[in-house]
Amino acid sequence: MTAVVEAAAGPDVRIGIDVGGTWIKGALVDLASGTPAGAVRRLQTPPGGRADAVADTMDRLIAGLDAGGPGAADRAVGVAIPSIVQRGVARSAANMDSSWIGLDVQSYLRSRLGRPVGVVNDADAAGMAEAHYGAGAAKQGVVLVLTLGTGIGSALIVDGRLVPNFELGHLEIGGAKAESRTSAVVRENEGLGWVEYAGRLQRYLSHVEFLFSPDLIIIGGGISACANEYLPRLSLRTRVVPASLENSAGVVGAALQATAGWK
Ligand code: BGC
Protein backbone atom coordinates (compact mmCIF):
# COMPACT_ATOMS: atom_id res chain seq x y z
CA MET A 1 0.00 0.00 0.00
CA THR A 2 2.75 2.35 1.04
CA ALA A 3 4.73 1.52 -2.07
CA VAL A 4 1.70 2.18 -4.29
CA VAL A 5 1.21 5.69 -2.92
CA GLU A 6 4.89 6.45 -3.23
CA ALA A 7 4.95 5.16 -6.79
CA ALA A 8 2.24 7.72 -7.60
CA ALA A 9 4.20 10.46 -5.82
CA GLY A 10 6.26 11.96 -8.61
CA PRO A 11 7.85 15.42 -8.71
CA ASP A 12 4.47 17.14 -8.95
CA VAL A 13 3.21 15.73 -5.67
CA ARG A 14 2.91 18.02 -2.67
CA ILE A 15 1.23 17.68 0.70
CA GLY A 16 -1.96 19.66 1.29
CA ILE A 17 -3.37 20.24 4.78
CA ASP A 18 -6.69 21.93 5.53
CA VAL A 19 -7.17 23.06 9.13
CA GLY A 20 -10.79 23.33 10.27
CA GLY A 21 -12.43 23.87 13.63
CA THR A 22 -13.30 20.15 13.94
CA TRP A 23 -10.95 18.26 11.61
CA ILE A 24 -7.49 18.68 10.19
CA LYS A 25 -7.46 16.99 6.78
CA GLY A 26 -4.41 16.10 4.73
CA ALA A 27 -3.46 14.36 1.51
CA LEU A 28 -0.65 13.91 -0.95
CA VAL A 29 -1.85 15.89 -3.95
CA ASP A 30 -0.90 15.36 -7.56
CA LEU A 31 -0.64 18.90 -8.91
CA ALA A 32 -0.80 17.77 -12.53
CA SER A 33 -4.36 16.51 -12.11
CA GLY A 34 -5.42 18.40 -8.95
CA THR A 35 -6.44 15.18 -7.22
CA PRO A 36 -5.34 13.48 -4.01
CA ALA A 37 -2.71 10.83 -4.82
CA GLY A 38 -4.11 8.51 -2.16
CA ALA A 39 -6.66 8.83 0.61
CA VAL A 40 -7.58 12.15 2.26
CA ARG A 41 -6.90 11.47 5.93
CA ARG A 42 -8.16 13.44 8.87
CA LEU A 43 -7.40 13.84 12.56
CA GLN A 44 -9.48 15.73 15.09
CA THR A 45 -8.48 19.35 15.66
CA PRO A 46 -7.11 19.54 19.21
CA PRO A 47 -9.60 21.20 21.59
CA GLY A 48 -9.00 24.92 21.74
CA GLY A 49 -7.05 24.89 18.48
CA ARG A 50 -3.78 26.21 19.93
CA ALA A 51 -0.99 26.60 17.38
CA ASP A 52 1.46 24.18 19.09
CA ALA A 53 -1.16 21.44 19.45
CA VAL A 54 -2.30 21.95 15.84
CA ALA A 55 1.34 21.71 14.65
CA ASP A 56 1.75 18.41 16.56
CA THR A 57 -1.40 17.04 14.89
CA MET A 58 -0.10 18.11 11.45
CA ASP A 59 3.16 16.32 12.15
CA ARG A 60 1.27 13.09 12.92
CA LEU A 61 -0.94 13.53 9.87
CA ILE A 62 2.09 14.00 7.61
CA ALA A 63 3.82 10.96 9.12
CA GLY A 64 0.74 8.91 8.20
CA LEU A 65 0.66 10.30 4.65
CA ASP A 66 4.22 10.40 3.59
CA ALA A 67 5.27 6.99 2.52
CA GLY A 68 9.00 7.59 2.55
CA GLY A 69 11.17 7.14 -0.53
CA PRO A 70 13.45 9.61 -2.29
CA GLY A 71 12.71 13.25 -1.47
CA ALA A 72 9.74 12.43 0.79
CA ALA A 73 11.28 14.00 3.88
CA ASP A 74 11.64 17.34 2.06
CA ARG A 75 8.28 17.27 0.29
CA ALA A 76 6.71 20.72 0.53
CA VAL A 77 3.48 21.19 2.43
CA GLY A 78 0.76 23.77 1.88
CA VAL A 79 -1.43 24.61 4.85
CA ALA A 80 -4.88 26.22 4.63
CA ILE A 81 -6.10 27.92 7.81
CA PRO A 82 -9.33 29.80 8.67
CA SER A 83 -7.44 33.09 9.08
CA ILE A 84 -6.52 36.14 7.10
CA VAL A 85 -2.95 35.32 6.02
CA GLN A 86 -0.69 38.18 5.05
CA ARG A 87 2.85 37.22 3.97
CA GLY A 88 2.63 34.07 6.10
CA VAL A 89 1.34 35.90 9.20
CA ALA A 90 -2.17 35.15 10.55
CA ARG A 91 -4.22 38.30 11.08
CA SER A 92 -7.42 36.68 12.38
CA ALA A 93 -8.55 33.31 13.72
CA ALA A 94 -12.03 31.87 13.07
CA ASN A 95 -12.86 28.95 15.38
CA MET A 96 -9.21 28.75 16.44
CA ASP A 97 -7.28 29.94 19.47
CA SER A 98 -6.59 33.69 19.39
CA SER A 99 -2.85 32.98 19.92
CA TRP A 100 -2.71 32.44 16.12
CA ILE A 101 -3.29 36.15 15.56
CA GLY A 102 0.02 37.85 14.78
CA LEU A 103 1.88 34.54 14.54
CA ASP A 104 4.20 34.08 11.55
CA VAL A 105 2.53 30.75 10.84
CA GLN A 106 4.69 30.03 7.84
CA SER A 107 8.03 30.38 9.69
CA TYR A 108 6.62 28.61 12.75
CA LEU A 109 5.43 25.61 10.76
CA ARG A 110 8.61 25.49 8.70
CA SER A 111 10.61 24.97 11.88
CA ARG A 112 8.05 22.64 13.50
CA LEU A 113 7.57 20.44 10.43
CA GLY A 114 11.13 20.69 9.11
CA ARG A 115 9.99 21.17 5.51
CA PRO A 116 9.14 23.95 3.06
CA VAL A 117 5.72 25.32 4.03
CA GLY A 118 3.31 27.71 2.33
CA VAL A 119 0.30 29.05 4.25
CA VAL A 120 -2.96 30.32 2.77
CA ASN A 121 -6.48 31.26 3.92
CA ASP A 122 -8.79 28.21 3.69
CA ALA A 123 -11.31 29.81 1.33
CA ASP A 124 -8.50 31.11 -0.87
CA ALA A 125 -7.16 27.55 -1.04
CA ALA A 126 -10.56 26.11 -2.00
CA GLY A 127 -11.08 28.94 -4.50
CA MET A 128 -7.74 28.41 -6.20
CA ALA A 129 -8.42 24.68 -6.43
CA GLU A 130 -11.77 25.37 -8.13
CA ALA A 131 -10.20 27.96 -10.43
CA HIS A 132 -7.37 25.60 -11.46
CA TYR A 133 -9.08 22.24 -11.63
CA GLY A 134 -12.80 22.59 -10.89
CA ALA A 135 -15.88 24.62 -11.77
CA GLY A 136 -13.81 27.71 -12.63
CA ALA A 137 -11.12 25.99 -14.71
CA ALA A 138 -9.97 28.12 -17.67
CA LYS A 139 -12.52 30.87 -16.84
CA GLN A 140 -11.33 34.39 -17.54
CA GLY A 141 -12.77 37.44 -15.82
CA VAL A 142 -13.90 37.79 -12.22
CA VAL A 143 -14.69 34.50 -10.46
CA LEU A 144 -16.03 34.57 -6.92
CA VAL A 145 -15.89 31.37 -4.88
CA LEU A 146 -17.97 31.28 -1.68
CA THR A 147 -17.60 28.44 0.80
CA LEU A 148 -20.66 27.95 2.99
CA GLY A 149 -19.74 26.04 6.13
CA THR A 150 -19.34 27.07 9.79
CA GLY A 151 -18.76 30.58 8.47
CA ILE A 152 -18.67 31.98 4.94
CA GLY A 153 -15.31 32.00 3.21
CA SER A 154 -14.69 33.81 -0.04
CA ALA A 155 -12.04 33.87 -2.75
CA LEU A 156 -11.83 36.36 -5.59
CA ILE A 157 -9.94 35.21 -8.67
CA VAL A 158 -9.36 37.55 -11.57
CA ASP A 159 -8.14 36.01 -14.84
CA GLY A 160 -6.80 33.06 -12.83
CA ARG A 161 -5.00 35.17 -10.21
CA LEU A 162 -6.10 35.28 -6.60
CA VAL A 163 -6.88 38.53 -4.78
CA PRO A 164 -6.07 37.20 -1.28
CA ASN A 165 -8.10 37.60 1.90
CA PHE A 166 -11.38 38.73 0.44
CA GLU A 167 -13.44 38.36 3.62
CA LEU A 168 -16.96 38.61 2.24
CA GLY A 169 -18.44 36.46 5.02
CA HIS A 170 -17.98 39.52 7.23
CA LEU A 171 -20.06 41.88 5.08
CA GLU A 172 -22.74 43.49 7.22
CA ILE A 173 -26.22 43.26 5.77
CA GLY A 174 -29.22 44.57 7.71
CA GLY A 175 -27.01 45.10 10.77
CA ALA A 176 -25.77 41.50 10.94
CA LYS A 177 -22.62 39.82 9.68
CA ALA A 178 -23.51 37.77 6.60
CA GLU A 179 -22.00 34.56 7.95
CA SER A 180 -24.05 34.83 11.15
CA ARG A 181 -27.28 34.61 9.06
CA THR A 182 -26.37 32.68 5.93
CA SER A 183 -23.70 30.03 6.62
CA ALA A 184 -24.55 26.34 6.22
CA VAL A 185 -24.18 25.77 9.96
CA VAL A 186 -26.62 28.61 10.72
CA ARG A 187 -29.14 26.88 8.41
CA GLU A 188 -28.76 23.68 10.43
CA ASN A 189 -28.75 25.38 13.84
CA GLU A 190 -31.86 27.42 13.06
CA GLY A 191 -33.55 24.46 11.34
CA LEU A 192 -34.22 26.55 8.22
CA GLY A 193 -36.01 24.93 5.29
CA TRP A 194 -34.52 25.36 1.81
CA VAL A 195 -37.03 28.04 0.78
CA GLU A 196 -36.17 30.26 3.72
CA TYR A 197 -32.46 29.55 3.38
CA ALA A 198 -32.53 30.33 -0.34
CA GLY A 199 -34.16 33.66 0.60
CA ARG A 200 -31.22 34.52 2.86
CA LEU A 201 -28.75 33.45 0.16
CA GLN A 202 -30.60 35.57 -2.40
CA ARG A 203 -30.28 38.66 -0.20
CA TYR A 204 -26.59 38.03 0.41
CA LEU A 205 -25.67 37.13 -3.15
CA SER A 206 -27.57 39.99 -4.74
CA HIS A 207 -25.71 42.43 -2.47
CA VAL A 208 -22.37 40.83 -3.33
CA GLU A 209 -23.29 40.83 -7.02
CA PHE A 210 -24.16 44.53 -6.89
CA LEU A 211 -20.84 45.39 -5.17
CA PHE A 212 -18.45 43.27 -7.26
CA SER A 213 -20.16 42.30 -10.55
CA PRO A 214 -18.51 38.88 -10.82
CA ASP A 215 -18.68 36.90 -14.07
CA LEU A 216 -19.20 33.61 -12.24
CA ILE A 217 -20.10 32.63 -8.67
CA ILE A 218 -19.08 29.17 -7.43
CA ILE A 219 -20.71 27.86 -4.25
CA GLY A 220 -18.53 25.47 -2.26
CA GLY A 221 -18.53 23.89 1.17
CA GLY A 222 -20.46 20.75 2.13
CA ILE A 223 -23.68 22.46 1.04
CA SER A 224 -22.62 22.40 -2.62
CA ALA A 225 -23.78 18.75 -2.69
CA CYS A 226 -27.39 19.99 -2.14
CA ALA A 227 -27.18 22.71 -4.81
CA ASN A 228 -30.42 21.65 -6.51
CA GLU A 229 -32.29 22.60 -3.30
CA TYR A 230 -31.31 26.28 -3.44
CA LEU A 231 -29.74 27.21 -6.80
CA PRO A 232 -33.03 27.00 -8.78
CA ARG A 233 -34.62 29.39 -6.24
CA LEU A 234 -32.03 32.14 -6.82
CA SER A 235 -32.51 34.99 -9.22
CA LEU A 236 -29.28 36.76 -10.16
CA ARG A 237 -27.83 38.06 -13.39
CA THR A 238 -24.56 36.22 -12.64
CA ARG A 239 -24.22 32.50 -13.37
CA VAL A 240 -24.05 30.55 -10.09
CA VAL A 241 -22.70 26.98 -10.11
CA PRO A 242 -21.80 24.44 -7.41
CA ALA A 243 -18.15 23.72 -6.69
CA SER A 244 -16.97 20.51 -8.28
CA LEU A 245 -14.10 19.36 -6.04
CA GLU A 246 -16.27 19.03 -2.93
CA ASN A 247 -14.31 17.78 0.08
CA SER A 248 -10.88 17.80 -1.49
CA ALA A 249 -10.86 21.49 -2.56
CA GLY A 250 -9.12 22.67 0.64
CA VAL A 251 -6.28 20.13 0.56
CA VAL A 252 -5.79 20.50 -3.20
CA GLY A 253 -5.66 24.30 -2.95
CA ALA A 254 -3.33 24.12 0.04
CA ALA A 255 -0.97 21.87 -1.92
CA LEU A 256 -0.99 24.42 -4.76
CA GLN A 257 0.33 26.95 -2.26
CA ALA A 258 3.02 24.59 -0.92
CA THR A 259 5.89 26.13 -2.79
CA ALA A 260 4.32 29.49 -3.52
CA GLY A 261 4.58 30.72 0.09
CA TRP A 262 6.20 33.98 1.11
CA LYS A 263 9.96 33.60 1.39
C1 BGC B 1 -13.10 33.64 8.29
C2 BGC B 1 -12.41 33.37 6.97
C3 BGC B 1 -12.55 31.91 6.59
C4 BGC B 1 -14.01 31.51 6.62
C5 BGC B 1 -14.19 30.03 6.33
C6 BGC B 1 -14.54 33.18 8.21
O1 BGC B 1 -15.15 33.36 9.45
O2 BGC B 1 -13.07 35.02 8.59
O3 BGC B 1 -11.05 33.73 7.05
O4 BGC B 1 -12.03 31.74 5.30
O5 BGC B 1 -14.58 31.78 7.88
O6 BGC B 1 -13.51 29.23 7.25
Could you explain the architecture of this structure?
- By secondary structure, the protein is of the alpha/beta class.
- It folds into two domains: 13-125 and 248-260, Nucleotidyltransferase, domain 5; 137-243, ATPase, nucleotide binding domain (Nucleotidyltransferase, domain 5, 2-Layer Sandwich).
- Helices cover 32% and strands 25% of the residues.
- The strands form four sheets. Strands 1, 2, 3, 4, 5 and 8 form a six-stranded mixed β-sheet that branches. The chain has a five-stranded mixed β-sheet with strand order 11-10-9-14-15.
- The chain is globular and about 55 Å long.
- The two termini are 35 Å apart.
- Bound molecules: beta-D-glucopyranose.
- The site of beta-D-glucopyranose has 14 residues, from α4.
Estimate the mean pLDDT confidence.
92
| Unreliable residue runs | 1-9
At CATH level 2, the architecture of the largest domain is 2-Layer Sandwich
**Total domain units:** 2
CATH fold topology of the largest domain: Nucleotidyltransferase, domain 5
What quaternary form is this? single chain
Bound molecules: beta-D-glucopyranose
The secondary structure category is: alpha/beta
CATH class of the largest domain: Alpha Beta
Per DSSP, the total helix count is 9
Distance between the termini: 35 Å
Radius of gyration: 18 Å
Helix content: 25-40%
How do the SSEs run, as a string of H and E? HEEEEHEEEHEHEEEEEHHHEHEH
Classified in CATH, the superfamily of the largest domain is ATPase, nucleotide binding domain
Note the beta-strand portion: 15-25%
Outline:
globular
